Amino acid sequence: MRAPTQHSITYMAGARPHGGCLTCKMHFRCLPRGLNERDTVRVEGLLQTRRQLKCGEYLYQAGDRCDTIYAVKTGCLKTHVCDEHGYEQVTGFQMAGDLLGMDGIGLRAHDFNLVALEDSEVCALPTARLDELPPELETIRRYLHEVMSGYIVRDHNAMIMLSKMRAEERLAAFLLDLSRRFAALGYSSSEFNLRMSREDIGSYLGIKIETVSRMFSQFQERKLIDVKNRHVCILDSVRLQRIIGRSLPSKQRRVG
Amino acid sequence: MRAPTQHSITYMAGARPHGGCLTCKMHFRCLPRGLNERDTVRVEGLLQTRRQLKCGEYLYQAGDRCDTIYAVKTGCLKTHVCDEHGYEQVTGFQMAGDLLGMDGIGLRAHDFNLVALEDSEVCALPTARLDELPPELETIRRYLHEVMSGYIVRDHNAMIMLSKMRAEERLAAFLLDLSRRFAALGYSSSEFNLRMSREDIGSYLGIKIETVSRMFSQFQERKLIDVKNRHVCILDSVRLQRIIGRSLPSKQRRVG
DNA sequence: CGGACCCTTGAAGAGTTTCAAGAGTGGTGG
DNA sequence: CCACCACTCTTGAAACTCTTCAAGGGTCCG
To answer: What is the CATH class of B166-252?
Structure first.
């Protein structure tokens, strides 16, 4: 199920990438909305290069110096972290248009590992160059703030999932999230290939691989999805959606 | 167990706070390390005012406009979020020196709710004023980046806890974290009052209130802690520490 | 003193993990 | 091209952990 690299262009380190942000189908996700053409070209000038990653290759690992922000151009990656006790967990999956590497801006060293789940291509922006931004490109810096706080929001949703949902709900939420993300990239929302293993899914959802497998089978039996290996068809997104929230107590206790 | 407000000064909105950051015992946590006296005063000039919060009072709620960053001066608060399905969860507890309100910088609206667990006092910095910062105070803006990425790291640790630890480990990790934080503030690391209810703890740890209670009792029986209502003594932090990591499989599967 | 609220405890039950075995898949080399 | 191997995934049964339900005790405050 390892998708072949879509582009096989390679660049020398430091070389200006071919056809820049303006021609990239993902620029509407990497760059702030409403950035004019002239400024887009200027941002592009800050970009160091693209980088090709083979499936399984690390873009960076926890502890590496953090001096670059990345944008996924093609492919799919996962982030995973390890705590001081040796517990390890997948914290997210990144696809085209997602920005990466902001976890260590403060620390100057990365907090987590970033590895390609299939052959991928990323654009690199050295953080040092952010300081070169002229005042009129303040938008860019502000945009990075936005993306970072978006991370926080996304992590909070993940925390709720990990804390409150049952296995069934977790997998349903996961599939629907993927579906939405594929749709946002212009792909089919009802049929797609999983780039990650059951083990990765389990780690991300906080359940064991056997449970992931059982839930897939159960969904298939209930005709909610059709799944064969890593190929998934969403057959009934409405009922899938309805699964989420089922374990809520009827008399909901508010924590506030 | 509701601690009385330590200072009962009140300020009119917009008034310059009494004795500013320089005299505040927490400035070493709110402000970047190594900020000189002159610059500290300049930052102080950006501060709008302090704000008093009664126990149970909200500083802001999800959806509120996000235009201010806060620093906790005294007291304790909790953040809690609600997802689209109605699930709700406490995502963290904030004490003196912690910075708050950065969750919504990108969104211009807050993602979560912030409520005082005891009478508290916070300093407010309108985000609009951040743009007034002269270039030589770039440190400040960078510091906010750091704090934000610190949030991400902290959330990831919380995710590992929610995903991989058993109830016993969660409570142990929680108590040790509190202990460390109190120590960092100059208070006793072995004896402190919990500001939050069992319900809050359970929500934060992703376990039910009954389980929290059982674990407290169990720890007490094993002479790891001494607990009476919300007063906690850590009797054996070494063994408490050793609880964490117990449920790791001996042959550790690496996700990478 | 009474009531509200928070906390504790027990017993039964649900959900997930663990352990174990086996099937399917993809890659390699004869 | 097939056999073989490593790896991933699936499935079942038993064990375990946590939750649910229920009841009662404690504490604080009017």
So the answer is: mainly alpha
In Å, what is the separation between the CA of B145 and the C1' of C8? 44
Fold of B10-159: Jelly Rolls (2.60.120)
Q: Is B241 on the interface with A (CB under 8 A)?
A: no
Please tell me chain B's helix, strand, coil percentages from 3-state DSSP, rounded to the nearest 5: 40, 20, 40
**Model pLDDT for residues B192-236, shown as the tens digit of each residue:** 999 999 999 999 999 999 999 999 999 999 999 999 999 999 999
pLDDT digits (tens, 9 = 90+) for B10-19: 334 444 445 5
Asked if the model's pLDDT at residue B67 lies above 80, the reply is: yes
Are the folds of A10-159 and A166-252 the same? no
Residue A163: which of B58, B157, B162 has the nearest Cβ?
A: B162
Q: Verify whether the Cβ–Cβ distance A245 to B145 is below 8 Å.
A: no
Contacts of B103 in chain A (CB under 8 A): 149, 152-153, 156
Which residues contact residue A187 at a Cβ distance below 8 angstroms, ignoring those fewer than 6 apart?
none
Map out the domains of chain B as residue ranges. Answer: 10-159, 166-252
Share of chain A above pLDDT 90, in %: 57
Query: For residue range A14-27, what is the model confidence (pLDDT) as tens digits?
Result: 444 455 788 888 88
Interval A158-206: pLDDT, tens: 999 999 999 999 999 999 999 999 999 999 999 999 999 999 999 999 9
Q: Name the H helices within chain A.
A: 27-30, 37-46, 138-164, 167-184, 198-205, 209-221, 237-243
3-state secondary structure of B64: coil
Spatial separation of the C-alpha atoms in residues A71 and A79, rounded to whole Å:
14
Inspect the interface and report whether the beta carbons of A107 and B248 lie closer than 8 Å: no
